[in-house]
Design brief:
The protein is α+β, with helices and mostly antiparallel strands. Helices cover 25% and strands 35% of the residues. It has one domain. It contains eight helices and 16 strands. A hairpin with a 3-residue loop joins strand 4 and strand 5.
Length: 353
């Protein structure tokens, strides 16, 4: 595939402009590199949330939040059995078995947590990001050896509504799944003020909610890369070639279109009276941005238990197969990050209004 000089300039400009902020981009993300031969995947689930409180100047909340720019962050690893992360994985595995009748296992994970407040005279913005990086095993439901496999992909849309408590040396116990957990650590006096009001609802919406990634795989963009070069050039994801087929199948979700559907920022609003004044709250949840790379040629297999989908993966591709679906050429892969970064900028501007 050849690109004109103008296309190269546009693509490179977009990458240069947005690469500096994309890592901090506001998006619900899921990425995975799947190795059928190893019956495992390296995965990453990132949940984000932005919540804004609006209050009158010189009010009680203004006195507590104006100029407050506190933050907390920590990282955990399941190699430490005392921090509670293994128990979080146990709850995910229980969810997979009870809600999806899936035998996949989330194992050997790391977790990165960040929460921050940026307070001003009349508004305060609270931002949260939780990144879970597990190894997912027991993906293959059927196999004839090394040539073909049937993969369970229902793990892409986990939804955890309950509190997920971990323990850190700096923060003690903290609920990583609800913004209120971070609020209690950053500004406990504000948490006390809002905990019994309707404002608390915005802070008790789960962060680790990846339901939108459960969209039918037919509504994901599909790219078949016969050499692995295009996926590498786009700078995405994980290496899935070692021990696998030299070809790569790539599924991506996040670009709104007639075929794939519309993915927009979700906004919730509310208000309550605190100490005699009205306080407003706005919660913003980003649209999804997901990608799954698989070693081998993948096809969607319908008709599983409960209408679930599986992927049939072979080490060789049929002759004459199309390289992509839904007009999804390599330009889309290269510019996809820039598009999501643009969404991030718009969301952050909206959060500060």
């Amino acid at each position: 595939m050849k690109l004109s000089s103008l296309n190269y300039v546009v693509l490179l400009s977009a990458i240069v402009i947005f690469s500096g902020i994309f890592n901090q981009g506001f998006a619900i993300q899921m990425e995975a590199g799947v190795s059928p031969s190893k019956n495992a995947a390296d995965a990453s689930f990132t949940g984000d949330r932005i919540i804004t409180l609006k209050y009158p100047a010189n009010s009680t909340l203004a006195q507590m939040l104006d100029g407050n720019k506190n933050s907390i962050s920590f990282s955990l690893n399941t190699s430490d059995s005392s921090n509670g992360l293994s128990a979080v994985l146990d709850k995910i595995n229980e969810y997979m078995l009870s809600q999806k009748q899936s035998l996949v296992k989330f194992e050997n994970a790391t977790l990165d947590y960040r929460a921050a407040v940026n307070g001003g005279p009349t508004t305060a913005t609270f931002s949260y990001q939780v990144e879970l990086h597990p190894t997912i095993t027991n993906l293959v439901t059927e196999s004839n050896g090394t040539e073909t496999s049937v993969l369970d992909v229902d793990w892409r849309s986990i939804v955890l509504e309950e509190p997920l408590i971990v323990t850190t040396q700096e923060q003690g116990q903290i609920d990583i799944n609800h913004p209120f957990g971070g609020l209690e650590k950053i500004v406990p006096e504000v948490a006390t003020k809002i905990q019994n009001t309707t404002l608390a609802e915005a802070f008790n919406t789960p962060i680790l909610d990846f339901e939108e990634f459960g969209a039918s795989m037919n509504n994901w963009h599909f790219l078949f890369d016969a050499t692995g070069a295009q996926a590498g050039a786009a700078g995405y994801g994980f290496s899935v070639i070692e021990g696998d087929s030299k070809i790569v199948s790539i599924y991506s979700l996040g670009e709104s279109s007639f075929r794939e559907g519309t993915h927009t920022v979700k906004e919730t609003t509310g208000s309550a009276e605190i100490d005699g004044v009205t306080v407003g709250v706005t919660g913003l949840t980003a649209p999804p941005s997901g990608q799954i790379q698989i070693g081998g040629f993948s096809q969607i297999q319908q008709g599983g238990a409960g209408g679930t989908e599986h992927l049939f993966v072979s080490s060789v591709a049929p002759q004459g197969v199309a390289t992509s679906s839904g007009s999804f050429p390599i330009q889309v892969l290269l510019i996809f990050g820039a598009m999501m970064a643009g969404v991030a900028v718009l969301v952050l501007v909206k959060a500060r209004k």
